[in-house]
## 1
Amino acid sequence: MAILPGEVHVLAGENGAGKSTLMKVLGGIVTDYEGTVEIGGETVRLRSPQDAARRGVAIIHQELSLVPTMTVADNLFLGEMPTQGGFVRRRAMDDAARAALAKVGLDVPTDTPMERLPIATQQLVEVAKALRHKGKVVVMDEPTSALNVQEAERLFGLIAELKDQGVGIVYISHKMDEIERLADRITVLRDGEWVATRPAAGLPVPELVRLMVGDKGVAPVDGSPWSRGAELSTEAQAIAQAEGRTVGEALSTPSTWEATSEDSSDAVFASLPSADPPTVLPSSRPSFQGEPSSEFALEVEGMTVVQNGRRVVDGVGLKVQAGEVVGLAGLEGSGNSALLLAIFGAFGRVPGTVAIEGQRTTIRNPKDAIRKRVALLTSDRKTSGLVLPMSITGNATLAALPRLSKGGWRSDRKERDVAERAKADLSIRTASLDLPVGSLSGGNQQKVALAKWIETNPKVLLLDEPTRGIDINAKREIYALIEKWKAQGMAIVVITSELPELLLLADRILVMHRGHVVSEMARAEATADRVVHAAMNA
Amino acid sequence: MKKTPSQILQTPAVRALVALLLVLAYGVARNGNGAFFRFGTHRDMLRSVSVYGLLACGLTLVVISGGIDLAVGSILALGAVFFSLATIHWGWSPALAIPATLALGAAVGAVSGLLVSWGRFQPFIATLAAMVTARGLAKEISDNQKVSTVVTMADGTSKSAPLPKVFGMIDQRVLGDNVAVVTLIFLAVFALTWVLLARHRWGRELYAIGGNEEASRLSGVPVARAKMLAYVLSGAFAAIAGICQAAQEQQGDPEAGAGYELTAIAIVVIGGTSLTGGRGGVGLTLVGMLTIGYLDKILSLNAVSESTRLILTGAIVALAVLAQRSRK
């Protein structure tokens, strides 16, 4: 793969394709690689981020890499502060900081602590930091994920300027409109291997998607997702993962490394044209209009969550029938996740009422919620879903411990039975149930998290991004499970940032924007366009 | 799944045992003219390390939950002083004094637990406060004097009170002179801790909280209550250690147990229980206790000065942590 001066080179690929890892090699973060990197015709070995920066590679990370308690100026010069005899030259640093900020059109006091700035501003500071060096290559890893439209525009303007200055830009993004707009050339990676490099002009979106997804990925947008007909066995894939992927021609010569990158946002298909609703679904879809309230498994009214003085969820109502899947769409920060957390009692008691099967109840905390047979799969299994060092059995039984123990004493036998059953029902692939759950692949971790909630025997199942960061086969398995639980009469609410997934799973879609439900549509009338439109503007 | 030899070597239990075996091998090599091979050496080692072991059991619970308890040494002193006052000066029967001392220790632990669980203090800060306060209480109720059988009267003269029988009962050897009662008390507390961690729901909850507190809370684990209970038990165990210490010294010393919390933490860490929480166990703590106990005993058999012993103990702690880290 070659990056020319003055071009925007888009790096495209599914989750785990190796994009971020490849960029970490360029940024000197991953130093254990094979293959060569040449900059300006000179073969270099990048040994550290400082090394990469000196050689003119600037990286703008997907996750912010800033110190929240330090000031803007400190962050801009972290690791390279101008000093005199070991003391920081404060004034010189502030001046240089102001200049760097001006370049990205930011006007904030340089002594503001980072944490006081809004995320979007922090992101721009990150950009300013990367551009401070006279870079030959600037790598941007999903730089707009935290920016609003205007801020993104400012960034695009900046990119144009850099192009004019002859800087080569590597741009990683899942957003098709950005790719279409910015790309001069596109390189596609899949499963850690180079697939193709093409001029953007000759690569229409459907073709690009086909390259990214390969043959295995076509099914979720066109076929019947419930058939487990994924011919590529997940075992084979897991083995491939464990052995480390080979990124073929990506860096002139083959490079290998442990592929552990897992992109947090997983919106590869997000702006694809909507799929036709699958026809293989059971037709037991209940009607939801004008029914007496006792028909609803879950009724929420006037739910309100206030965080930092902002009404994150503002008087939202939600009704879900048994055997119904309601999709809760909305952009990051729309309040959909907060709504589920609030229903589940994660914020303690908040304004609003909840009724389960027509019975008004008070849910003060998650324990209450579990007792009332409400379950919530959180969006991030690593930080709030699983206890990674604990065994699979320990995790799968955690929420159901009161039921599985007698007078406070646990029963290893009962727990093992539960875990064995979960392993079979959810096809969890593991050598042993005693292994720490953190040692499993993402998809299997997610299944353990689901197993934990199914073991509580819920009537209401709230799923926040149930397929985030997992491979396509595991996704299909989870779709099938959701369908099964729905057929068993659970009332299910799903949040997902992948539109095809939403359209596939949901019988009915509610769209949230800034704490309000702004639109409701039945599956028959829902299209990707309509959902996106509703999610963007109230 | 078959484990390769290197994987087996990487389990914390095996690592801890290797450290213990190294110390024992050193004892065999430098056996102090055969003193190391005498049964009495081992019996006395167990007796003298039991008090630390009691503190370490409670600490293990707290550490697994992701916390730390600096107050155990001070609670030991408070327990020792209170128990001596109650039995020698106030004439309480052991049947009353022992539960009362335990309750006092548990109460101090409960304060730490309240600050940590509901006050959202960092465990280090909360138990630092409890540590200083408990030491102050011990000095307060004892008038900063050692509480012994010598009772100073109002007119300045002093008379000697009889030493209550319970002191002798605790500081004796039983089962044919083969094991100290203090060691048996430690073993009972160890067994209780083990069964709670391994078999009780609360033990599982502690591991879960130490591993991921937010995930535990969202899984319905009563986080605050479970953490609270760890500090309460830690306090109660420290009070038991205080009673043992008083019995061994035949007095309640308000200065007793200073720095013991650090030895207890060292024992937990050498065993391989992770200070970040969620991993480890009291079985490891037992191995850690034997390692520290034998190291100290062997070095003193070889007439190594106390200062050198301290330096070596510090080095062992650092090595133990280093060995744990290379696991990942």
Note: The first strand of chain A starts at residue 8 and ends at 12.
## 2
Amino acid sequence: MGRCALWWGPDGVELGEKQTMLMRHINGRRIWPTIVLLFGLVAVPTTLPAQEEVSSAIRRYKDREASTGFYEQYEAKPFLQRPFISIPGVRRGFFPYSPSAAQVRIRTRLADSHQGLKFYWNLRCEDCHAKETKDIHTVRANLTCRQCHGGEPIAGLQYYYSPFNLIRRHAYVCAKCHEGASASFASYVVHTPNPAMASTRKTFPLLFYVFWAMVALAGGTFLVFLPHTVAWGIRELFVKAEKTEDDSEKGR
Amino acid sequence: MTPKKADRILRFSPAQRLFHVTLILLFLTQGATGLGRMYIETAWGKGLVSVFGGYEASLTVHKYVGFLMICGFALHVLYLLFRINWREFPASLFKPDSIVPQVKDLQNFFQHIAWFLGVGRAPQFDRWGYWEKFDYWAVFWGIPLLAVTGLILAYPVGSSTFLPGWFLNVALWIHRIEAMLAMVHVFIIHFFIAHLRRHNFPMDRTMFEGSSSLEATRDEKPAWIARLEQNGKLETRLVSEASPRIRLFYYLFGYAALGAGVFLLVGGIVNSPYVTW
């Protein structure tokens, strides 16, 4: 076999051995297996491991977040949840869902939760959020509001792209200090309500009931043993007098 | 040199005394580090944590001492398992020498109250008074409760993989209230009953020395002494008093612990309005 027959194609272009073989297949009847293979690669769902690296929302999400945790698909996408379409506890009209109403009336769902507040730039956080500025994170760990809530604009907690949205709070906020924080960890209530208050029974019932159960336990203990101890101490003061009387009666 | 008179009755073994001394030291350390951190907003709290190297170092000490308490509790449970009379179990748990609460203790409690009020005779206590049993079992269930909630709080990221994160809020309050209950009970009720009431004043050395005055015990626990005399076992339990130097050490240690406890109690009460809970 001459060199030209092996290395040169029909148009005089130099080809490799494999390409030459391919040309032969295309020219012949063995083209169909190749077509089936190419079609199969396209038709197979994109769950092939090699493709997941570049197509999966999970992988891309993990590239951006700070935590070392693993997050499922529903944590990166709304999935079946429908954001900013209803006002909790309020049903208005025949069709109660209104994106515009939600955006105006529910600040926790705004991209800028302080949108429209008068003289906002002259206010300090504690002017409106006095109670929230006094908790373990601020008082004990000396954190400032900005260290968690970030700079302006401060997105509402439920705004979909807010770092405080529960779907990513653990990664974007908690994990800054608590390495490896999970979504479960992020359900810790940072601004803990006063457990003794009646309002806590609605917002955090377990905390309310556990607090009062423990107070009842401690209070019950003291209610019994403090008077008991005082009475015992007083009573023993008279033991000597009784003995003295006995002793005097016995002539001792 | 004349031999010492054996006029004291043995009440506690060296192991039991060691458990108690260890508990005193660990409990006071936990109280000081815990209160120091809780009261960090006040000068009193800052001073308290400075003893242990600051706010963060206090937490480290609190955690390590907490581990020691858990180990001590585990050792105590092992000790109990060896001490229980398994041949007569479970009847052995309800004999007079057992510290398990019984119906008789409830009767003694009400009879004691009647004596306080001057409307009845003092009860004939056996080896353990109801207040001693209460103190023991309060610690016995208190340590596991503090240990579990303490571990949850010490490892919040890890524990939130098994529990919802909001349980940390609940665990913190359980830990706080249980710790405060324990401290107030020990620093007021236990200290007064064990050391400051007239019968034991100026200090009951029994738990340190292992023995108590036979006469004082006959006065307070007549049923126990009568039982020992009836069984002929009283003589075997009689021991002599410790030397004056050792007694002085017991007094110094006891009053140092009592002073530390009262300092924590008073400081905690006085500074409580200035703390963010």
Note: The longest helix of chain B spans residues 167-196.
## 3
Amino acid sequence: MTSEQENRVIGRASATDRQANSSERFSFWLRPDERVNPFDIVDAEHYETSRTFGLVTNIYHTTDAASHLSNLISNDFGEAVEEPNTPRQGTNVAEVAVLSNDKDIYMPVASEARVRFADAEGIQIALGINAMKPEDRVPAGLIQLSNGSQAVAYIDRRYVLGPEAAHINISGISGLATKTSYAMFLIQSILQTMDVSKVATILLNVKFDDLLKIHLPGSLTPEELDMYQQLSLEPREFPKDKVTYLLPEGKHTASTLRPNCFGEPPPRDMTQIYAYDLRTTVGNRKLDILFSHVPDPWDTIGPLIGEITEGIAGNESKWRHIRTWGDLLTQKPLVGNGVPQKISNVAPSTVGRFLRILRRVVKTRQSGVFVDQLATRHKTIANILGKLQGGFTYVVDIAKLTDAEQTLVFGDLLRTIYDLYSEGGVASGWEEEGELPEKVIVFVDELNKYAPARGEAVRSPIAEQVLDIAERGRSFGLILFSAQQFMSAVHPRVTGNAATKVLGRTDAAELGESGYRFLDKDVKMHLTRLDQGSLILSHPIYRQPVKIRFPRPAFKQGR
Amino acid sequence: MPNPLSGLTPALQAICDKGKVLPATGQALIDLLGPDQDETFDRLLTDADEKKKPVEMVLEPPPWKLYHPLDHLPRPLDHVFRYFLDGSARTYFLGTVVERERSSPVQFAQVGAAAVRREADGRIAKAGAERRLILMLSQDHVSAELWAAVAAQVQAIPELTLRNSGEKDQVTDGVQVAEPRFRGAHKANWFMREVELDLGQTLLEKLPEGAWMVLDGGLGKDIIKWPRLKDWDHPPLIGVGKSFSKEPSFKVGGGPGGKILNLYELLAKLDFGCRTVAFGAEGGKKAFWYVRLRPQRELDYPLMGVIKVEMPNPRGEAVPTELIDRLSGALLAERNVTPHGRDSRWHAHLYPISVAERLVKGLFYSEEVLRAAIRWPTI
């Protein structure tokens, strides 16, 4: 694009008695052949030769017709459909939300101010990127204007990984793994722009084998390769020697040695198989997580879980013979003569309910991840994640697990790292191993399963765990990258703590929810028809959300 | 923003110095004129003798018919009219200056004219525009000393002129306005017409080959005397009146079968998409006819939706019927779009003319600006 195209005046600011310009907004009319689109960034001349940058939020067409009736009458009362001799005078008017002024002048843009498309430098000034330290800049996508101008949308690392703010939440119904792709692109971008040894990454694979081939190179289109170049990122897969896959034990793993995952499992030397037996589950105080999905309005199951945990973890005599899930379900002290027994103050009926639920989870409907005894080839999540290493990426596959099992694994994972960091690694004896990575990024899709906005599960142990990470994780270096279709379905304290929000296409009903109040009403409307591959990025440094494009991650994606 | 009319203050100061001023509530008050100004001008600019007797002259070759059906001639088929010209005036009453037993209204007017050019694709572009600011006093009602003092101050401001609101012109007697203040408002319209005619002549000089220009309103007696018009058999210029005098009557046919029709009778039988025969005026130097742009059934009154078309005819000979049909067919195609809702005369208004009108009004300072900007200096 030539500089003449970049410098072309596309219109002039317009203020009327009914539609004034303000410090926050201004309007401009467009020359007849000019085209702008919502989310374009424009540059308006302002006082003291300064420039005010703004985001186009809407464009409307106005004419001198007093009413629709006037237009009907102007077509011979609706009978003429030919082109009129003189088309009605009209213009396209763009509404603009002010982003910034390069001399910090926030007086309203004056009527008649000349307006141009912002150039690459202007886009960065508009978003406040120029004020970011270069070492804090993380490429988060490309902003492309209607005139072809492009600029990299950098986000500030201090607002993604702390200490200023943290966490990223991605919403939308974009489909075709857009949310996961973006999260993975952003993680790679972070890892490529900082000392990788200071960061460990944990990815939950929740669908098919989407994230089970991240060590293999993928195929990218020339356009995507070009985008990587513009972003100054290398299109590369995760290094093979730095990836560990944690795959679940299945019902047939013992005989086939094949873990319970979709597709071809990753190579054995990169794989650990995890399973849950009674003793380690209870001993590691994770039994409560297994009951996260169970309503407990009278708080009866909670005390029972406490009794069992204290008994088994404390190796009390009446629990000492309980070694397996089967033992717990069929033997004293919970069961006598096939009948649920009273334990301390817990009534037999509660014990009976507990047993029915537990049997369903660990026996009748289980995927195979619950075993009687851990074999030598088995690891626990706590084993592996309790010894996190900087520069490593851990993929925890839960795609084939039942909902209760998925909740257990995710809760186990969060509690393990939360305990690890909140206690400075003391609990796991980490201080003997070396230094903990400064930051741990945890990416999970379908967050609404674990921290829902409403229902009984709002107060579940897993939800509490997620809230802990969202609210206090930043101070320890625990960073949550989360995704879900509907932001309103996730606990507002979780999404509220995500300083950076990324939105894909979203339906109008969802956009009416309170969580989207931070968006301008026009921006909301555009979200309903956002292209696939485009996202809206809201970051604390930006005064308004911007539209970005991004390349697919460079690793091989499953399915 | 600086006061755009600060240059007026010394002139007002001169008025205050030489006379006693009774201000109009301290601010400028708009003087409104009735919307039938075009009709008044049309009536007054017609030769006095012609008004008294029926129009007999037909300026079409025989055999002619009183009513002609027209072919709709839209722009893509034949882009006839390319230039459209209109003027506008706004007058403000500032106060009354009293000198001994004499008094004169002090008025300020913004007058201007604008022309638009229509491109081949229908888009409108500005072809020319001019605005003038006029300070008006009735010269006969102030002393020569006061007039000279104000004139001296006004000279220093290029855009501003001092004009005599009591000056006689072709219409002052006709409008029969005795009250000096209302006469000033009419004078402002006459000054507007001067600007309009100046711009029209300028544009006519550089009119591209084949392009026609449309002036808002009648041509009067002065336009048909423009020397440049003699260069053409049929100058590419018409005036289109949306309000016109209802006084004329027409003698149709000779001999015992001939009859006299008043304008109402003539137009009542004029169907949609038809024109009347072209009549002659000013000794044949001007041809005029009527075109019905809209069906009567859609309008409130039979005379609505009819325009009066005037064309200079410097040779004074019959105008070819084909040319009148072509111009009328093209005017018929101009009926859409309309300024309905913005102008009560929308049914007979040509849209590009209304755009030119808006263009010239856009050059004017708003009433709010004027109210704030014009203040009597020492009252």
Note: The two ends of chain A are 39 Å apart (CA to CA).
